[in-house]
Amino acid sequence: MSLASVSAFFAKEAPDVAIIQQAASTATVxxxxxxxxxxxxxxxxxxxxxxxDRVVLVxxxxxxxxxxxxxxxxxxDRPRMLxxxxxxxxxGHPVGGVCPFGLATPLPIYCDVSLKAFDRVYPAAGSRTASxxxxxxxxxxxxxAQWIDICQAVEEPA
Length: 158
Hints:
5 helices, alpha/beta, YbaK protein, two-stranded antiparallel sheet
């Protein structure tokens, strides 16, 4: 499923968005940044979290870390990361290719305000070698995401 479901999502919802296929891995923030030639913050990582009895996806900038206190205040409890098997079963995407597009199961999606530091970000596109380039507001609009503030502040390089 995965890359095919993401391709189908963009064909229907945003045919102007091209999937960027790479020969090298984009599975981690560091690999994606090196492969795409951008700073790690521009990689829009998608976290699969369990908050109480529900699973949510949170898209943050690549160099941000979740703040448990902020997450509890915004989502009602402390988050727990899902295991790899559970992530793939729920999202339809393998770890390293998880994104908020073409999901196997409809899930609540949140975008952290940390993404707004950039004009363009690079979320994965359903495989460990594919991504897309979007404005953060477009990413949120296409996925029906809510904006929240749950990451620790990122110090920008001088």
